[in-house]
## 1
Amino acid sequence: MRRIGDAPLIRRLLIGTALVLSALFLLLPLVAIFAQAFSQGVMVFWANVSNTFTLHAIGLTLVIALLTIPVCLVFGVALAWLVTRFSFPGRRILQTLIDIPFAVSPRCGWPDLPAALWPQRLDRLVAGRL
């Protein structure tokens, strides 16, 4: 039984379409970011990048990344090994907890969490509109 993607021409078209769409989703935001960054000229961009606060923020980001990547690597490999090799009570719950960040976008889900959980009065108090 032949599938739709078995023909060489169809397979190349599907792969090409996937590559073009992936490139667009990756490159268009980068182009927009650089266009906005350089919209007022290179000198304004360089003045903002060479600002003391910006340099400290970049340094802090690099330090935190260098500290967290090895920790995530060790715990990620350990959890993957644990979940795939052993059967234990709570395994399905652990798998669910591991999958939640992939299923819920942090940009969509987390900002709405306080609005869903907090009473309206407390929300206004925190926002300074009470």
## 2
Amino acid sequence: MNINHKPIVDLLVSSTGSATNRNEKTTRLTRELWNIRREMQAQHAREAAILAELGDTNTLPTGPKLQAVATKPESLHQTSRMEALLRTALAETHQERRRRIYAEHALKEVERECRAPFVVPALLEAFLSISELTRT
């Protein structure tokens, strides 16, 4: 299998890039992530087949790491699921933080307007001046 990955520095999305560049990079990175996951699934299937063949011959891999993998292949899938859940939770936290900041800014705008309402009194004075001019 030929694994040809770009350096991680090339994959990082610049915060100063345009929306189009970010979208293109996001699409490219997502595609690469799915390719890697597909390769991992194929490797896990191959591992299961090898372990089944070894089980048929009553031979287990030696070494503590190999035995741990051989006895618990589902732990790899569980780790992947947990990492996906963590990424989702982090994304939701980031989105929630952005919403909170937006709400705080909106609240400050309302507080500032309530503290010094300059439009309404000025209009009231203008109408009073006009009404006085029309009376005389």
## 3
Amino acid sequence: MKTHQKLKEELIQFQQTDKKSLIIGSLVATLLAITPYLFYLYESVPSTQVWDTFLFTFNAGILEDSNYVMWMLTGKAIPLMFLIIWFFTCRHWWYHVILVPMVMYLFQIVSIFYSTSNIDEFQLMYMVPIMAIVVPTIYLIRAKMFDKINTASKSMEELEEEFKMKPGNIWEKIKQYF
């Protein structure tokens, strides 16, 4: 049996973890709730080549319209934000596949600011290194799961539970990649 003091310490630790997850969950929920506002922020940007604010000066460059650049940026950044949230909250064994569209959107955002040709012309050769890592990893996890299904009497749900990554926080999830 556990002592009263030990139970009290575990309760305090659970309450702190619960408060922390409540705060993080509230921030994520608020961010998701204000997404329509974030998407339409581009409408407050003038349709000029140079956009001067009290914080910075933005030059649209070859695109010649700051409003158009911000429209493209919000059209890429909002789905990227959704994918990042999904990646860090997904508990399925296949969550690494979400990296592929994340890198695609990131590449497209970078190409908005550094491209001299067509903006949304996605070049697959930049995705090949990411896909060369992610696709075999997912295949190996899948093969390992089906090997365990054939040799064990576990159900698919039990195997999925076994392959789930359960880091305690975002930093632990990031650390497992390095």
## 4
Amino acid sequence: MKRLDSAFEKLDSFYQELIDEHLRGEGVDDDDEDILGMQITLELNSDKPTNWDRVKALLMNLFLGGTDSTAASIVWIMTALMKAPHIMKKVQTEIRNVVGNNRKVDEDDLPKLPYLKAVMNETFRFYTPLPMLAPRETTKKFDTDVLPGLIMHKKNPLLLMPKLYRS
């Protein structure tokens, strides 16, 4: 628990530092206010007592909110590569030829790894981490072809996912 508490204290301190910088006007362009500046303005102009924890919660959502879909994407990419060892071997060979064995892949290496990029894009095509369209709802009652016996009623919410065809 000590490590967890320490991590949260560090994050809290970091978020407070960002808030303090905005309040002092450091690194802030008056012509182009960012989301943190807008949230601080809302907090200062609120009828409620100022509570920086609300602003810190927003910052935490912004910084940490995308980690789940990123982690899910990495899991799908690795799963796809494990299911196709010949493709994994090509990716490994490309990485070793560009990066070598003694260092990690750097952002500057990415343009030199077209096969890895193609594998990632293909994986995203087959295993999209997010629904492709905004939520919809049915306009009338109907039977589905996908699940025989399943009846979709009027105004049922739907999340549309791409239909995947494999050749």
